[in-house]
Specification:
By secondary structure, the chain is mainly beta. It has one domain (7-111). The chain has one helix spanning 102-111; strands at 7-13, 17-26, 34-35, 45-52, 58-65, 73-80, 88-95. The strands form two sheets. The protein has a four-stranded antiparallel beta sheet with strand order 4-5-6-7, with no helix packed on it.
Length: 120
């Protein structure tokens, strides 16, 4: 929670059904949670990691697989500055790393002062 009413959460059912991942936000303490998952997530995409900066600013990292055709995974970052009402795409790259951990990417980007076009 960022104050007495506003908070974020990343819901994921883990390895059983990761496609059901959701980005949730509340402005009513914990009474009502709204699904603010980026609408760009398709059937092959999964919200892997979320970084909540403040009440309105968040960064989501999604992955999209190409199985069974390919072992490659697309990694896509998304940014919202309006509490999840809209999301804009950031960097996208493809990796063949089978267990990519988005937290490592964000930490590396942050330590190298690599940020979005807009200041965080």
């Amino acid at each position: 929670m960022y104050d007495t009413t506003t908070g974020w959460a990343l819901y994921s059912s883990g390895f059983i059904h990761p496609e059901n991942s959701q980005v949730l936000r509340t402005t009513t303490r914990i009474e009502i949670w709204n699904d603010v998952t980026p609408s760009i997530i398709d059937n092959n995409s999964v919200a892997r990691s979320e970084f909540f900066i403040d009440q309105n600013l968040a960064i989501a990292v999604t992955t999209r697989t190409h199985l069974p055709e390919s072992q490659e995974t697309d990694v896509i970052t998304w940014r919202t500055d309006d509490g999840g009402a809209s999301w804009e795409p950031g960097e996208q790259f493809t990796t063949s790393v089978p267990e990519f951990i988005p937290d490592q990417l964000f930490s590396l980007m942050h330590s190298m002062d690599i940020c979005w076009d807009k200041a965080i």
